[in-house]
Amino acid sequence: MHLSLRFVIPLAMVLAAIAYAVIPLVDKLTVQWSVRDLDIRSAFVANTVQDSLLELIRAGTRNKMVAFFSRITQDERLFAIGYCSDGSQQQIVATRTLPPGLSCKNIEKFRDPGARVLESPRGLLHVSVQDVEQEGARLGRLVLVHDMSFIQRRSEETKKYLFYFFVGLAAIVSLVTVIIAQLSWRGWMQGFRALLRGEGLLRPAEKINVPELRPLARDLRSLI
After folding, report:
1. Which one-letter DSSP state was computed for residue 217?
2. What is the pTM of this model?
3. What is the mean pLDDT of each run of 10 residues along the chain (224 residues)?
4. Cα 11 to chain center, whole Å?
5. 3-state secondary structure of 143
């Protein structure tokens, strides 16, 4: 038992250190991949609604624009939508779910890929700013806010599965290590008992079945 613990305890410590280093890294990569997917999704949504949005902008109907945004946000991941005109008025036209911290004056900072995650009482939100253009001229900016709670749930599940994976790996490797250690110990003891009984002492050293015992066998023969 003590011999097995000499193998199992260091092995468990090494696997625990690897898990401690790998799990945060995988969590970070999961968030980065999800943010990249949301960037692509935001661009796709902006391109899809741009024609209808241009008609509403030309009509100048604020209420219809808000109703249009509200229909789009029925998607469970799309949390809020807003529009900022490049004209003199800087008041954002948006759904009621738009976070209070977002306005036409500060949305430009969310163009930076490293600053597109916004913390809110609801949780993490992904903010994307897309230009609304007509014939090459920019009319305004479309703000799309995605709910990242599903990413957090995915991240928690990933960390849980990785933890179970390392626990299972540690159990399997420890079991294999213990079995090999026990078999090696029994083989060594059987060979040593055979030497004590005199078996193999009169045979050449190269015929001893256990290679580790050949030097010991030669020493015993020389003493005898």
Report:
1. H
2. 0.61
3. 64 76 78 83 88 84 87 84 77 86 85 80 85 84 87 77 81 78 74 63 49 63 58
4. 24
5. strand
Question: Quick one: DSSP state of residue 148?
Answer: -
Structure tokens at 135: 């014939």
As a 3-state breakdown, the chain gives helix, strand, coil percent values, each rounded to 5, of 65, 15, 20
Evaluate the CA torsion angle 112, 117, 118, 119 in order and state its sign: negative
Sequence-ordered strand ranges (E) for 91-159: 93-94, 117-120, 123-134, 137-147
Q: Are 92 and 127 in contact (CB under 8 A)?
A: no
* Token pair recorded at residue 96: 């009621």
Of the candidates 205, 214, 178, 215, the residue with the CA atom closest to the CA atom of residue 4: 178
**Cα–Cα distance, 7 to 109 (Å, whole number):** 54
CA 119 to chain CA centroid, nearest Å: 19
| 156: exposed, middle or buried (Cβ count in 10 Å: 0-12, 13-18, 19+) | exposed
Question: What is the strand order of the sheet 123-134 is part of?
Answer: 93-94, 78-85, 137-147, 123-134, 117-120
User: φ and ψ at 42, to 5 degrees?
Assistant: -65, -45
**Structure tokens that stand for 178 in this block:** 């213990």
Q: Token digits for 3?
A: 């011999």
